[in-house]
Automatic annotation (TrEMBL):
It is found in: Cell membrane. One of its GO terms (cellular component) is plasma membrane. This is ABC transporter permease. Residues 208-464 form the ABC transmembrane type-1 domain. InterPro entries: BP-dependent_transpt_permease, MetI-like, MetI-like_sf. PROSITE patterns: ABC_TM1. PANTHER family: OLIGOPEPTIDE TRANSPORT SYSTEM PERMEASE PROTEIN APPC, PEPTIDE ABC TRANSPORTER PERMEASE PROTEIN. Its main location: membrane. Pfam families: BPD_transp_1. Keywords: Cell membrane, Membrane, Transmembrane, Transmembrane helix, Transport. GO terms for biological process: transmembrane transport. Belongs to the binding-protein-dependent transport system permease family. The chain crosses the membrane at residues 17-38, 71-91, 103-121, 141-163, 214-236, 243-264, 276-294, 306-324, 336-357, 400-421, 441-464.
Amino acid sequence: MDPITWTGSLGPLLNPLMLAAIAVFVLGFFAQLLLNFAGVQPGEVQINPDHTLSVARSPNDYALMAMKYSVLLFLACVAVFIVGGIVQPSLEQKGIIGAMGQRFLPVWIAMILIFAVSVTFKRRLGLYGKLFDSPIGMVGFFLVMFWMLTAIFAGLVATHGAIDVVSQMRNEVPGSFMPDPDEGEYLAYLLGGDNLGRDVFSRMVFGAREVLKIAPAATLFAFMVGITLGLPAGYFGGKLDTVLTFIANLVLAFPVILLFYLLVTPEIVASGIPTYMAAVLFLFPIIFFVILFNSRFFTQPFTRNIYIFLTVLIGGWLYLGLAWNSDPLGIISMPGNILIVFVSVVFVNSPTVFRIVRGIVLDIKTRDYVAAGQTRGEGPWYIMLWEILPNARGPLIVDFCLRIGYTTILLGTLGFFGLGVSPESPDWGSTINEGRRLLTIYPHPALPPAIALMTMVLGLNLLADGLREESLRD
């Protein structure tokens, strides 16, 4: 049976429109490039004699408009393919794009609900709501939420298991039908098969879960460590600042890839160094929240003791399970290879966060409201956590988004080198590494995870740009 085409029954109608949109975009791009070299500037706003405003458009503006509308036309065609994939009955009619659009239906529904609620109540949602006033921020948010929801609904989106092998489907092209229709729940490999006969589409989907299971949590832990150490270093200064800054610079001076190679060597793992590092680093979230609640409710001992008790109880339970794999309830645990990657990412990112927080504190601690808090007799930790830290949220939120992107790239790099992850892991880095061996002959196993990794990082960068733009207006 012939493979499914990319565009199905809608292809003859929409393919020319998509090609025309691409051609117009390319022409507009090169036209704008040449006009910029020629010194042609975009049109400026003019005040008319009747005190109305008008824009005198230049050729540069028309080139930009051509690029804008060509992108909108291309996206509209893709949307029609997705809708067609949802409503059309057979795989041949849906095409690969339509069939994938149908598989992502839970993601589309969740995205529509999130955007509808967010736009409706954006004026009540603070900085998050203001994000929807920024086109760049909305595009970044869309890309990030797409992959986050894909990770959440991976079991519904994927057509096959991440490690299910069908030997007859080895290196099959996208859209190839299964040799036996009764084998598996889905009739085809939408993005083809890899060199072992596994479904590339399903591995890309489950790869999102593997990446997003580590990157945000590891970045959050790194921020806990960096904030807990960066606040006192910047606020108190002196020898404490000197010692902590020296240690941070020492870690930053160490080659990252070499560090990961050392941590995954059998001798280092057998010595227990990754576990001891986890035992130290995983204490910082507990310390952070204990200090946070103690400083906030210092004058309310009963409330303070309840919060601290719950923090120690829940944090200690998570700490035993994650760091020592000794959860008394047997619920929380982290596999050894994931622990090594997690600890390594936290260890590498923490010094950079520390330096950012320290620099922000050095600037903010000279402000008048900090002096007012000191005059009122507020404690240093209260000032750091409840006066300085909230006013540093803009740069820290932006850096958090960017750092998740860096961590995602780092995890992809580690997977590419086979460090710390199991060989059958569907994470994007490992999948790219497996696909690149036959890249010149069969490019389809490596391209989908590479595009997924690129769009995820692009989305995080655009989201950070949107947050930075809106935080500057805040």
